[in-house]
């Protein structure tokens, strides 16, 4: 039994036994020649599930987003994106570096959305001074925050009205779908389809909450996916007997979507357990991610350690006690398939101890 409670990201360290069986038994071919049956089955499945013509299995979400951006945009085009969005801030600037696509970042509202007026104002006139605004890219969930369907409808309608294409970074789109399904008493797969219907392309990660070791998919029109396939090749993502990995993703789609609600419940359990501790503030998690702000004294302890001070940082203290989290901007705790209620309770106890909470 592992004593580590790993809340750094929603990735599992070891696929479930059932998933490993599915991988082990997967029929394989050579996907570079398009004849790996397990890859083809996954691509057909995820395209149908999200209501698109075609899909492409990708090694990572980063490559999937890059291929999408480079398929929608040409060199010198511009895409509108959130200031803290993954494609803009956490993917090494790939769209600009590799695609010569200029990002136009837009500040987020408190709910994670980009204000419609800000989107409208960022669209450049047709004038030689400006890059050509080509694409609106949204992210759902955004840092664990599901964007409202009404907002997604309005933002994508605005984009279409202004002639822009739309891409969704849906690394966690099934988390958003599960939250919507709980609120509406509906089916999570139908909710995912309803979200995807609003966008020209969607990138979805199997290696996040869905618990596969590797893999993402890009879905969209046949023409878009054909372009994306060339970008994937250029980026070195054309894999051979990739059915071994695709089988894990198919297993995840069958077995790990509905259970995301357990991750969401565990994130709420963590928040409940940290409520009322001096120096910690947060808003209750809407899905599987809890961000915690630290009071200045605790932040000082954290940064002092980063710069070689004598205090252990909170993140390091927790790590030494077997609780892993990240703390770049805020403390971040992510629940997933490998973390159960007992793990959450252990994390709560260690966090209380680390911040010196007496109750
Ligand atoms: C993790 C993540 C990605 C990228 O996925 P990788 O497989 O790690 O490259 C993209 N977007 C969001 C929102 C993510 O959380």
UniProtKB/TrEMBL annotation:
<dbReference type="GO" id="GO:0006545">
    <property type="term" value="P:glycine biosynthetic process"/>
</dbReference>
<dbReference type="InterPro" id="IPR023603">
    <property type="entry name" value="Low_specificity_L-TA-like"/>
</dbReference>
<feature type="domain" description="Aromatic amino acid beta-eliminating lyase/threonine aldolase">
    <location>
        <begin position="6"/>
        <end position="295"/>
    </location>
</feature>
<keyword id="KW-0456">Lyase</keyword>
<dbReference type="GO" id="GO:0006567">
    <property type="term" value="P:L-threonine catabolic process"/>
</dbReference>
<dbReference type="InterPro" id="IPR015421">
    <property type="entry name" value="PyrdxlP-dep_Trfase_major"/>
</dbReference>
<comment type="similarity">
    <text>Belongs to the threonine aldolase family.</text>
</comment>
<dbReference type="GO" id="GO:0005829">
    <property type="term" value="C:cytosol"/>
</dbReference>
<feature type="modified residue" description="N6-(pyridoxal phosphate)lysine">
    <location>
        <position position="208"/>
    </location>
</feature>
<dbReference type="GO" id="GO:0008732">
    <property type="term" value="F:L-allo-threonine aldolase activity"/>
</dbReference>
<dbReference type="Pfam" id="PF01212">
    <property type="entry name" value="Beta_elim_lyase"/>
</dbReference>
<dbReference type="InterPro" id="IPR015422">
    <property type="entry name" value="PyrdxlP-dep_Trfase_small"/>
</dbReference>
<dbReference type="InterPro" id="IPR001597">
    <property type="entry name" value="ArAA_b-elim_lyase/Thr_aldolase"/>
</dbReference>
<protein>
    <submittedName>
        <fullName>Low-specificity L-threonine aldolase</fullName>
        <ecNumber>4.1.2.48</ecNumber>
    </submittedName>
</protein>
<dbReference type="InterPro" id="IPR015424">
    <property type="entry name" value="PyrdxlP-dep_Trfase"/>
</dbReference>
<keyword id="KW-0663">Pyridoxal phosphate</keyword>
<comment type="subunit">
    <text>Homotetramer.</text>
</comment>
């Amino acid at each position: 039994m592992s004593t580590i409670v790993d809340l750094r990201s929603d990735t599992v360290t070891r696929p479930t036994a059932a998933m490993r069986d599915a991988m082990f038994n997967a029929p394989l071919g050579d996907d570079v020649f398009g004849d790996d049956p397990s890859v083809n089955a996954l691509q057909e499945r995820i395209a149908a599930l999200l209501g698109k013509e075609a899909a492409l299995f990708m090694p990572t979400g980063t490559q999937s987003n890059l291929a999408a951006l480079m398929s929608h945009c040409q060199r010198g085009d511009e895409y509108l994106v959130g200031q803290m969005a993954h494609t803009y801030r956490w993917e090494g600037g790939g769209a600009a570096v590799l695609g010569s696509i200029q990002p136009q970042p837009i500040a987020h509202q408190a709910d994670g959305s980009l204000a419609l007026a800000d989107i409208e104002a960022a669209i450049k006139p047709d004038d030689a001074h400006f890059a050509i605004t080509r694409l609106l890219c949204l992210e759902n969930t955004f840092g664990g925050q599901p964007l409202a369907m009404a907002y997604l409808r309005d933002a994508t309608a605005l984009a279409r009205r202004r002639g822009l294409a739309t891409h969704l970074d849906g690394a966690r789109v099934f988390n958003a779908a599960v939250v919507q399904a709980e609120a509406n008493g509906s089916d999570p797969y139908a909710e995912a389809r309803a979200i995807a219907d609003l966008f020209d392309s969607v990138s979805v990660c199997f290696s996040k909450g869905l618990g596969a070791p590797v893999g993402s998919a890009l879905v969209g029109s046949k023409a878009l996916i054909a372009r994306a396939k060339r970008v994937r090749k250029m980026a070195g993502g054309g894999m051979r007997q990739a059915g071994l990995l695709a089988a894990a993703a198919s297993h995840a789609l069958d077995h790990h979507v509905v259970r995301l609600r357990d991750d969401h419940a565990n994130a709420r359990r963590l928040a409940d357990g940290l409520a009322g501790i001096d120096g910690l503030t947060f808003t209750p998690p809407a899905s599987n991610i809890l961000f915690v702000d630290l009071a200045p004294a605790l932040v000082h302890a954290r940064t002092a350690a980063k710069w070689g001070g004598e205090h252990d940082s909170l993140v390091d203290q927790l790590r030494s006690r077997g609780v892993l989290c990240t703390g770049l901007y805020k403390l971040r705790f992510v629940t997933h398939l490998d973390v159960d209620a007992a793990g959450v309770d252990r994390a709560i106890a260690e966090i209380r101890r680390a911040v010196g909470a007496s109750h």
